[in-house]
Amino acid sequence: MNELTLHIIDIVENSVLANASKVSIIIRIDENANLLSIKIEDNGKGIDKQLLSNIESPFYTTKKDRKIKVGLGIPLFKFSALQSGGDFRIDSELGKGTSIEATFQLNNIDRPPLGNLLDTIISIIIGHQNIDFDIPIYNNGMLFHLNTADIKNELEGVPLNYPDVYNFLVQFISQGLSEINLDPQKTY
Ligand SMILES: Nc1ncnc2c1ncn2[C@@H]1O[C@H](COP(=O)(O)OP(=O)(O)OP(=O)(O)O)[C@@H](O)[C@H]1O
Ligand SMILES: [Mg+2]
């Protein structure tokens, strides 16, 4: 995948399928540390130990010697991080939730571009309005913090894709990104 936002969408989709009601997406750019990190945490059903030990590789073999495809979302995200001089870790507890963190060397030639954060955030939060998203974005120490639970409280039931609300969200996120020196029209 050639943009990190596509991985974010993919990993969040796992959280959705795991019946999460809360998902955090923590994005950090740190030029001094030459680091870009993406952490996605959910309170979904969690992953049992057996699957967890096999999940980072695209295939695992059962005792009956059958190859079973377990999916590509996680292995591809991991591959992308390791290829960019970064790291990958996944922690999960059954019944509690899952946390996935990928780090990337910011200036690594193999690091995929971040992609369009504005469009990605909008499509994630509007596509899953029943989930509360907590999305802190750090750019070199500056923070833009989006919390959809707070926004939904203010809206008192008006859906996020209601035209005026949608326009407000686009405006609010664009401005928030600009305030931490991230141009919403650019990728990083
Ligand atoms: N956040 C999560 N909570 C609970 N289970 C998860 C979570 N993320 C992944 N899993 C489990 O790990 C499996 C592998 O995930 P992965 O994203 O690699 O592949 P997939 O979702 O099955 O398929 P793909 O992403 O290729 O469409 C999932 O099928 C699911 O059973
Ligand atoms: Mg997946």
Describe the structure.
- The structure is a single chain.
- This protein has six helices and eight strands, in the order αββαββαββαββαα.
- Helix content is 36%, strand content 28%.
- The protein has one domain: Heat Shock Protein 90, CATH 3.30.565.
- The chain has 188 residues and is α+β, with helices and mostly antiparallel strands.
- The model has no long low-confidence stretch (mean pLDDT 93).
- The protein has a six-stranded mixed beta sheet with strand order 5-6-2-1-7-8. It has a two-stranded antiparallel sheet with strand order 3-4.
- α1 packs antiparallel against α3.
- The site of adenosine-5'-triphosphate (ATP) has 18 residues, from α1 and α3.
- The site of adenosine-5'-triphosphate has 18 residues, from α1 and α3.
Task: State the gist of this model.
The chain is of the alpha+beta class. The chain contains 6 helices and 8 strands, in the order αββαββαββαββαα. It has one domain: Heat Shock Protein 90, CATH 3.30.565.
- Rg: 17 Å
Number of helical segments? 6
Note the main sheet. Answer: 6 strands, mixed
Number of strands: 8
**Strands in their spatial order, largest beta sheet:** 5-6-2-1-7-8
Helix content: 25-40%
Q: Tell me the name of the CATH class.
A: Alpha Beta
N-to-C CA distance: 15 Å
The assigned structural class equals alpha+beta
Give the amount of beta strand, in percent. 25-35%
Domain count, please report it. Answer: 1
Which spans of ≥5 residues are poorly predicted at pLDDT below 50? none
CATH architecture: 2-Layer Sandwich
Q: What sort of overall outline do the alpha carbons produce when their principal axes are compared?
A: globular
The helix/strand order is: HEEHEEHEEHEEHH
Question: Which topology does CATH recognise?
Answer: Heat Shock Protein 90
Query: What is the typical, i.e. mean, pLDDT?
Result: 93
Q: Which kinds of small molecule does this entry bind, naming each only once?
A: adenosine-5'-triphosphate, magnesium ion
